Amino acid sequence: MGNKVNGDEGNDVKQDLLKHDCSIGEILKERGVSRRDFLKFCSVMTTAMALPASFAPRVAQALDEVKRPTLVWLEMQSCTGDTEALLRSANPTVAEIILDILSVDYHETIMAAAGHQAEGALDKTIADYKGKYICVIEGSISMKDGGVYGTTGGKTHLERARQVCGGAVATIAVGTCASYGGIAAAVPNPTGAVGVKDAVPGATVINLPGCPVNADNLTATIVHYLVFGKIPALDSHGRPLFAYGKRIHDNCERRPHFDAGQYVEHWGDDAHRKGHCLYKMGCKGPATFHNCPSQRYNEKTSWPIASGHPCAGCSEPQFWDTMSPMYKRLPNVPGFGIEHTADKIGLGLVAGAGAAFAVHGVLNALRKDKEPAEETKEG
Amino acid sequence: MPNQPKFKSYIWELPVRWCHWVNMVCIVMLSVTGFFIGTPFSFGSSASDFTMGWIRFVHFTAAYLFAISVISRFIWAFTGNKYSGWREFFPLMTDAGRKKTVKMLRYYMLIDKQVPETVGHNPLATAAYVCLFGIYSVMILTGFALYAQHAPQGAMHKALGFMYALFSDQGMRLTHHISMWFIFGFVVNHIYSAWLMDIKEHGGEISSMFSGYKFTIKKEE
């Protein structure tokens, strides 16, 4: 399993295009993944999809039999962080191999082919497997000025997205940029960046936001498609419920400290060293839906809150604009200066009202009123 | 006419008074616990404590009570007496209401010295209450929308789905927080005006919210 077969990517492209008829079980066997590791992987995926353990054999059987689907991976306006997250694990895992097998047809960052050869592979794939391939998109799509701010192979990202997503059985938007535009779409959004669903409204899009995407969730989404033949149940933001169905805050390992009333007050203070709740440090866990606490990153090594940093809310739409300031509980009040918190403004409002009425009261006390005139009497 | 005898009239029915005081108690409890939830102190001495847990429990219980009280008062606006009826809240709809509004405004702005007698709500107060009910609605909707997130896809979460389309999550928190300050601004106004009118009208303005009776120059028909 340690020998990941990446030796000659150029041949792989050809070879794997020919191997579309092999089942995933066969390919994994050929690549040296033991049956035991395969079953372990199936159990892990069953858990990731939030299914009961009794589904594991069904997952294994389905993966054994299912023909490998074609997958193309397109880079748009992105930092390639999602690809990095996928590739930078310490040891090759079954998940990585599955994705590696799936993604060989076209992946700008890791494929050996270049130039016309690469574009030719993409054209061939989307023509040969129309309506059958899965498209993965990383990065936001520029819409402004005809989309000129992002082009690959002489075509704008928007054109490419329309061309490729249109023929895909489903499009998986990996990372926050592809899902909702991400940092590129933050105010003032100079390139008019949007997520895939906004750029190609007709496409079937599964959003897997996060900065970067959790590779386990991507694998689980693909496995879900392979096992059940359909896309997983989604929430109102187009995210699979199995991965984004619960709030970080409600599954957080530091939650007991929140309920107890034990908070980090300053970076590096005693509470911080003891691992208390990061709520007061601006943690956006209460506003963020993601399975980070259970799935974690880098092969379940850690995740932000486990390593002492508050959640930044990266998997929510427009997080860059709505979740800032990163280290404060509440956003700034729009239209006021940066350091004007809601409390300062509110206090000013109440003090102003108090002062106004105090003056009114004094003026009234100095006046002699008249009894009500006959026509104003009620009752 | 300072020695003129006055009639005692039953103005505020029991549900009106109950709603008023339940709202008040709820607003105090919700504000105190809400401040703590927004900016907690590290009260807990061990991870087995439940300080924040209990404070949130009080907040949510008071929230339910408050919502029930506000909804009850809304219903009472259609079933109660004329002083509590919904028409009182739109004085600008009638000719008499408009006249009264002008008189009240002139008195409040220290132009007129004559205190216009008011038996039920005065038109400026009802205008403020309409705004207040608006703020209450925002508070209840944002509050329960935030609360419902502990059980995504649950009944409450689904029923309030439109809120998540209208607000970002943090925007909802900010709105919930700043609306509390708007209520405080109202409270300053409200207490001052009640105090002022109690002094000026001699109709038992403040005690009427306990007893329901006001003292009026003419006999109530």
Morphology call of chain B: elongated
CATH class of chain B: Mainly Alpha
How confident is the prediction overall: mean pLDDT of chain B? 91
Task: Give the end-to-end Cα distance of chain B, rounded to a whole number of Å.
Answer: 22 Å
CATH topology of chain B: Fumarate Reductase Cytochrome B subunit
Helix content of chain A: 40-55%
Give helix % range of chain B: 55-70%
Can you identify the CATH class of the largest domain in chain A?
Alpha Beta
Widest beta sheet: strand line-up of chain A: 2-1-3-7-9
Distance between the termini of chain A: 92 Å
* CATH-assigned homologous superfamily of chain B: Transmembrane di-heme cytochromes, Chain C
Mean pLDDT figure of chain A: 85
Number of strands of chain A: 9
Low-confidence stretches of chain B: none
Spatial strand sequence of the major β-sheet of chain B: 1-2
Regions of chain A with pLDDT < 50 over 5+ consecutive residues?
Answer: 1-18
Please report the total strand number of chain B as a whole number: 2
